[in-house]
Design goal:
The structure holds two protein chains of two kinds. By secondary structure, chain A is of the alpha+beta class. Chain A is 60% helix and 12% strand. Chain A has four domains: 2-55 and 549-690, no CATH class; 71-122 and 224-262 and 376-428 and 489-534, no CATH class; 126-217, no CATH class; 430-473, no CATH class. Chain A has 29 helices and twelve strands. In chain B, α5 (148-160) runs parallel beside α6. The radius of gyration of chain B is 17 Å and the shape is globular. Classes of the chains: A alpha+beta, B alpha/beta.
């Protein structure tokens, strides 16, 4: 009972002296509250982001684990590293071998072969398309179409002329001469006399346009395309974030590509549509065009797109749209080009309506994308041995990763079948390799440099080697593509599941049954692979996703640093104010010592004081921190940027906390507070009873 | 009569800046239990230092102080603290009440430190003492709500609550007006008479000295006179 009375005395003294020094207590207390709120909400947020991000990463591309070659010169970066392509991940010679081993390891649900690479894809130039249309109109003898096409062509030529003028002023040497002559041709094509003669002798005019003017328009835009070659069926089955947007899955045994919808919208779509999209996006975010330099420039660029759009519209469609647009705009002119020009003149007032009209009226009649579902497109890549390969693949559809529709980070990857990937990668079967060394021996070539490899080994007039290669192996470097004549045909040979599995892959995604056992499964798989003498390494999704995976680590480091700083400051402040309070109370402590209080009691007084304060502050901070997270949980934190969409694994993050966050925060606050009390407590216990005798001065 | 306090050739030196102050230069005296003793002298004469030695809040540089037969310089700090708690009561010049506790709690404090008494016993003891110092009505007030005289009476009650053998008071009336000072001394005398508690207090006030039964005068760290007044 007496112990209880003493404890109650200590508590009473502690609480009363906290109250007596309320300003100090309030300052110290609010620091503790702030620290607790920061730890609870910060760590809960980070864990929520991490788990959201891990969902994004794991279930869109990375899987829980990735297996790749130990010989890789670069670290695997599923979402791209700092450089664009050209990374060396080594290769896994046989997917099947790894699959067989992995299937015997506990907790592994599925393995999916992958090959990440970068290819290019080009869009034909608008001039080519325009001249093509003009030729067709002439062939079909549709004068009306011609009269509609010509103004649009002139408009494109004006843009081209201005561009060439700029080029003339900045180029030198042979390129300067070339550009100068191109400019002269374009100028000719813009004269009234040229079009007057064109009406009389259209074929001659068309030839001039095709041979002299079209080359000045360039090859069109070259686009880079990151793609992941994979077992498409297995991918769709095991990566649950994957969803088809348009079209259909690539049928089994067929070669095909699925374009990422986000990539298509942000990179492939025609410029006018992309400009409109970004203006509309800004409008939705309440950003006005007027006064915003970037948006104003976009609006100006949009105006220059009327030529490009009218070229893309077939003459029938132009006739269909003209009256509709005319009535919408209340325009007096009947000339489509001038109506279109007006339509594309956009300001804050008409943006919403123009955007809506563009997509309802014009988009259905335009090819917004350089491909249609079902088209065969040519993609080119550099093989490992350094020469260019092309493959023609059917676009079966577009897809997105659920929740990440707007995210560029995951949106940059497109999917192709494993066979096409292997061809573009330049893989050779073992039979081919033997053949190659035989050729080398016959040709008495000891070493072949990369640059001359093609000519030395396969090029020139000697085609015998090519023929010899064609009959061997499943994967011929020469199938499908004839380097001299680019045919728009594709490899129709079907392939089987066994073809997919027998061959190589760059990496293998591993999906687990129990997500909490990532590390132990990683070790088990690594062990199994090493025992099988395979020079492969297994990394978790964080490592495999490159910079993105490390992002959370970075944010965590920043948070920890902030927490550390806050608590370091808190420690100093608590320590200081406790010390001040102690020094103020020297006489009181001395008195207590004089009338018989032992040092232990003084110490327990100090500790109790801190403990009471930090319990109250901890409880308050926990309430505020968890309250904040709960509030955010019901509301959701909107992702305002694409990076955030990816991090949040969707448009909103609904953070949540666990008892662990509360527990950790309160432990930290107690430890920090007690540490801060150490020195003042030492000072307090050293107060001599004789201090009580000194008169108050 | 037995000596409750005996001081044997006590020297006390302490450094003050660069010089060493010789506060006590060989003091010897004995105090009988139940006595009412004043130690007088001008300031700097060493009376506070002597009281501190007797009060066990300080130990002599040489010589011995025996409290109820126990030599203070042979005791460890813990034991000294315990000795203070058991045998001694303190009344300070500046009252030294615990500001955050009310009157009754201040008086109860040494009992809690000491332990061993039930709640009702403690309350009874506190109540009795508060009555004898005339502060029953103020028992729930905080020190800062009291006058100087009232505060010193609280301090007296606190010093006596553990029923110590000796009560030490360093200039207990120095901060009080003379009338209040007289009252304080009267209360101390009454308690000395009723409980037989030994009172040792320092003062330089002639009027206060007049109440003592024994006056020990000090000059320059030495006893200059030791006289017993009257016989009761």
């Amino acid at each position: 009972m007496e112990a209880l009375a003493r404890i109650s005395l200590v508590f009473r003294l502690a609480i009363r002296s906290l109250w007596a020094h309320r300003i100090k207590s309030a300052i110290v207390g609010s620091l503790m509250v702030f620290g607790t709120v920061l730890v609870v909400s910060g760590s809960a947020m980070l864990d929520s982001i991490e788990s959201a991000m891990s969902r994004s990463i794991i279930h869109s591309l990375a899987g829980h684990l990735q297996v790749y070659s130990s010989n890789a010169r670069d670290e695997l970066a599923i979402y791209g590293g700092t450089t664009m392509g050209g990374l060396d991940y080594g290769e896994i010679p046989s997917f099947k071998t790894v699959k067989d081993i992995a299937e015997r390891v506990d907790n592994i649900k599925a393995v999916v072969p992958m090959g990440i690479n970068v290819a290019s894809m080009s869009r034909g130039s608008e001039l080519d398309l325009a001249f093509g249309r003009l030729r067709e109109a002439h062939r079909k003898r549709r004068v009306k179409d011609q009269t509609q096409l010509i103004p649009a062509i002139k408009r494109l030529l004006v843009i081209l002329r201005d561009d060439l003028k700029n080029q003339v002023s900045v180029t030198s040497g042979p390129r300067h001469a070339e550009v100068t002559s191109q400019l002269a041709h374009v100028k000719t094509a813009l004269t009234e006399t040229f079009w007057a003669t064109f009406t009389e002798a259209p074929l001659k005019g068309l030839e001039f346009l095709d041979t002299k003017v079209a080359p000045a328009g360039g090859d069109g835009r070259l686009m880079y395309l990151r793609y992941v070659g994979t077992d498409l069926a297995a991918f769709a089955k095991h990566f649950d974030r994957f969803q088809l947007v348009k079209g259909e899955a690539v049928p089994r045994g067929k070669r095909g590509i699925l374009i990422n919808q986000n990539f298509a919208d942000k990179r492939l779509k025609i410029l006018a549509a992309r400009l409109l999209d970004s203006l509309e996006k800004a409008r939705k975010e309440d950003v006005l065009i007027a006064g915003n330099a970037e948006l104003e420039s976009k609006a100006r660029r949009l105006k220059t797109q009327s030529g490009a759009i009218s070229i893309l519209l077939s003459p029938e469609n132009v006739r269909a749209i003209t009256p509709l647009l005319k009535s919408k705009l209340g325009s007096k002119s009947d000339d489509f080009d001038s109506i279109l020009g007006d339509f594309l003149t956009i300001d804050d007032g008409n943006l919403a309506e123009r955007y809506q009209t563009f997509y309802s009226l014009m988009a259905p009649r335009l090819d917004l994308y350089p491909f249609k579902i079902g088209d065969v497109v040519t993609i080119r890549a550099w093989t490992k041995s350094g020469y260019s390969r092309a493959a023609n693949v059917t676009v079966y559809g577009t897809f997105s990763f659920r929740g990440l529709e707007r995210s560029d980070l995951s949106g940059a990857a497109n999917l192709v079948d494993m066979m096409t990937f292997r061809e573009l990668y330049g893989q050779m079967s073992s039979a081919q390799r033997q053949e190659l060394s035989a050729i080398r021996k016959n040709a008495k070539v000891k070493s072949v440099s990369r640059a001359s490899a093609e000519d030395a080994l396969f090029g020139g007039a000697d085609t015998s080697a090519t023929e010899a290669m064609d009959v061997s192996g499943r994967f011929s470097e020469f199938d499908g593509v004839d380097l001299k004549k680019k045919r728009r045909s594709q490899d129709e040979r079907p392939y089987t599941q066994s073809d997919i599995e027998q061959g190589m892959a760059l990496s293998i995604a591993v999906l687990l049954k129990d997500e909490s056992q990532i590390e132990s499964t990683r070790l088990a798989l690594q062990d199994a692979l090493t025992k099988a003498n395979l020079k492969l390494k297994v990394v978790d999704w964080k490592t495999a996703s490159g910079l993105i995976g490390q992002f959370v680590q970075l944010v965590r480091a920043v948070l920890y640093f902030a927490i550390f700083t806050i608590f370091a400051v808190a420690l100093v402040i608590i320590n200081n104010s406790m010390l001040m309070a102690t020094l103020e109370r020297v006489r009181e402590i001395g008195t207590m010592r004089a009338i018989g209080a032992q040092r232990g009691l003084i110490l327990s007084l100090m500790v109790t004081e801190t403990f009471v304060l930090c319990s109250v502050a901890g409880a308050l901070g926990t309430a505020l921190g968890t309250g904040l997270i709960s509030w955010l949980n019901t509301r959701g934190i909107p992702a305002t940027t694409d990076v955030m969409v990816f991090l949040f694994s969707g448009p909103r993050l609904f953070p949540d906390y666990t008892s662990q966050h509360v527990w950790i925060a309160n432990t930290i606050i107690v430890i920090v507070s007690l540490l801060a009390t150490l020195w003042p407590a030492r000072v307090a216990t050293r107060v001599q009873p004789i201090e009580a005798m000194r008169s108050a001065d | 009569m037995s000596m409750i306090v005996s001081v044997e050739d006590v020297h006390k030196e302490y450094p003050l800046g660069k010089v060493t102050v010789h506060a006590l230069r060989g003091v010897s005296l004995g105090i009988e239990a139940g006595d009412f003793v004043t130690i007088a002298g001008p300031s700097g004469s060493g009376k506070t230092t002597l009281l501190n030695q007797i009060g066990c809040v300080d130990v002599p540089t040489s010589g011995r102080v025996l409290i109820d037969g126990r030599c203070t310089s042979e005791l460890k700090e813990r034991q000294l603290t315990a000795l203070r708690l058991e045998k001694l009561g303190f009344i300070f010049q500046t009252f030294n009440l615990v500001a955050v506790l009310d009157v009754a709690q201040n008086v109860e404090l040494p009992l809690l430190l000491q332990g061993g008494l039930s709640k009702t016993d403690r309350e009874e003891r506190v109540a009795t003492l508060l009555e004898s110092v005339g502060l029953t009505e103020q028992r729930k007030q905080r020190p800062n709500e009291l006058s100087g005289g009232q505060r010193q009476r609280v301090a007296i009650a606190r010093a006596l609550v553990t029923r110590p053998a000796i009560v030490l008071a360093d200039e207990p009336t120095a901060n009080l007006d003379s009338e209040t000072g007289d009252r304080i001394i009267d209360i101390m005398k009454a308690l000395n008479r009723d409980h037989g508690t030994t009172f040792i207090f320092s003062t330089h006030d002639e009027r206060v000295m007049a109440h003592a039964r024994r006056i020990i005068k000090m000059v320059d760290g030495r006893l200059s006179s030791d006289e017993r007044i009257g016989a009761e």
